[in-house]
Amino acid sequence: MRTLGMAVFKQQKVEDFYEIGEELGSGQFAIVKRCKEKSTGVEYAAKFIKKRQSRASRRGVRRDDIEREVDILQQLQHPNIISLHDVYENRTDVVLVLELVSGGELFDFLAHKESLSEEEATEFIKQILNGVQYLHSKSIAHFDLKPENIMLLDKNVPMPRIKVIDFGLAHKIEDGVEFKNIFGTPEFVAPEIVNYEPLGLPADMCLSGASPFLGETKQETMANISGMNYEFDEEFFGSTSELAKSFIKQLLTKDPRKRLMIEGALNHPWIKSHEHVEDTNACPEAHTGSEIHQMKTKRLKDYTIQSHCSIPPNNTYINFERFTSVVEDISLVETSLEGVAEIRESIQEDIEALLSIYNEKEVWYKAESENMHHGLSQARYELCKVKISREDLQEDLRATETSLASISVRYLERLAHLGSLREELDAELRWLQEVVASEKGEPMNSKQALVRRQSVVNIENFRKQYARRRWKFSFRIVALCNHLTRMMKKPQDKPKEGYVERTIAMFERDCESDQEEEVLIKRPRTRKRSSTS
């Protein structure tokens, strides 16, 4: 269905453009009133349709249904079909401005006639068929052809024009699209509607007026329609011709494929035989010949009253909408039940597969849990080892700090000792300078010259030995400090047990050996000085 925009539904007050008159009729959710267009003075019929305000509500007509009816009416332009003039919308209603059909219902017109010939009947039926043929040419099915929806444009003419009205249930039938629904008035619907079968254009051809399927209850009527149980009551069909009965039988066929279609109905001998009947006043013989097929309209009126009183008036929009919903639900349930066994087997297989997977996963999780516990235990053990190593390293660091403090003290002592040695050396040098200065002016023998040369050599050697020992002592102190610093920066490289003590002891021995060498160097120089002096 096409989506209708706001341009079609004018958001204006209909009273601004039309004078609203008296009420012409009403239904469950619609009221029809006479109206006159202010600009032209032409009279129309205004159909006020109450909109449904919410999806949960059952009061009013759904917006989709109203749009579908308007969309279909916009496509129709035919002498035997009511035409749409304008559409207005407000908060509560949609107003359809339609062609005014003031002649009333066809059955009311026929009931007021004393008699009706088959020739007159075929003229009315032919107009109805022409309208239906036009609908079917546009792939539109009315789905609610009944006496109340067949009106006369003007009953005050010799042969009134038929107007098919009320397209609230009409649908566009699309090729290849299956369409199912339940709607209409029970005694006038086709069997495929009652049986909830796919619907098409043939459904319109089985919608009858004076229903031969009418039962005492709605359920009996539907059962008669579904089973095509009907008979021509002699009281009502005694004067009906065999051609007319043949026409009715071909229309009331259960199988839509065998049912008389619109073209076949228009070309049926009963319709064709009365197609060129002239006016009865101009041809008395024709009038005399048709007397045998006169229908007593009193019986028609009684039958119409009986058919409309035997079943309470039924509302199309609400009763069959609910019934349709129930039938659709039942159909869905039946479709679902057909696959319950397969679904159950499939579910059982899925459950077994899930149990198998669960057991496998349970074994896997158990193994993973054991591995995880073992890993955690190993991690705890390694953590304890790391803690112990850290404590040992901290103790070694504390011992190293203590040793460094001791080395610093000893280093200061050695510096002080070196200072005293420097002072002694300076004193010795001054003494040597004095000796050399005192002996410059005196002659020397060979022995004294030799002693002088040895003294000069000894002084030079002492200077070199002093510088070398001082450099060696400083280098060892710096190397020891660097080594201890690296140990403090890398606590993971834990030194072997006693390494720090051995290093410090070695340093002390080197210092003592240096002192001994200094003493040995100093003593001969003292002896030489004594010999020289």
TrEMBL record:
<keyword id="KW-0597">Phosphoprotein</keyword>
<dbReference type="GO" id="GO:0005737">
    <property type="term" value="C:cytoplasm"/>
</dbReference>
<keyword id="KW-0053">Apoptosis</keyword>
<keyword id="KW-0547">Nucleotide-binding</keyword>
<dbReference type="InterPro" id="IPR011009">
    <property type="entry name" value="Kinase-like_dom_sf"/>
</dbReference>
<dbReference type="GO" id="GO:0035556">
    <property type="term" value="P:intracellular signal transduction"/>
</dbReference>
<dbReference type="GO" id="GO:0005524">
    <property type="term" value="F:ATP binding"/>
</dbReference>
<keyword id="KW-0723">Serine/threonine-protein kinase</keyword>
<keyword id="KW-0808">Transferase</keyword>
<comment type="similarity">
    <text>Belongs to the protein kinase superfamily. CAMK Ser/Thr protein kinase family. DAP kinase subfamily.</text>
</comment>
<dbReference type="GO" id="GO:0004674">
    <property type="term" value="F:protein serine/threonine kinase activity"/>
</dbReference>
<keyword id="KW-0067">ATP-binding</keyword>
<feature type="domain" description="Protein kinase">
    <location>
        <begin position="18"/>
        <end position="271"/>
    </location>
</feature>
<dbReference type="GO" id="GO:0006915">
    <property type="term" value="P:apoptotic process"/>
</dbReference>
<dbReference type="Pfam" id="PF00069">
    <property type="entry name" value="Pkinase"/>
</dbReference>
<dbReference type="InterPro" id="IPR000719">
    <property type="entry name" value="Prot_kinase_dom"/>
</dbReference>
<dbReference type="GO" id="GO:0005634">
    <property type="term" value="C:nucleus"/>
</dbReference>
<feature type="binding site">
    <location>
        <position position="51"/>
    </location>
    <ligand>
        <name>ATP</name>
    </ligand>
</feature>
<keyword id="KW-0418">Kinase</keyword>
<dbReference type="GO" id="GO:0043065">
    <property type="term" value="P:positive regulation of apoptotic process"/>
</dbReference>
<dbReference type="InterPro" id="IPR008271">
    <property type="entry name" value="Ser/Thr_kinase_AS"/>
</dbReference>
<dbReference type="InterPro" id="IPR017441">
    <property type="entry name" value="Protein_kinase_ATP_BS"/>
</dbReference>
<protein>
    <recommendedName>
        <fullName>non-specific serine/threonine protein kinase</fullName>
        <ecNumber>2.7.11.1</ecNumber>
    </recommendedName>
</protein>
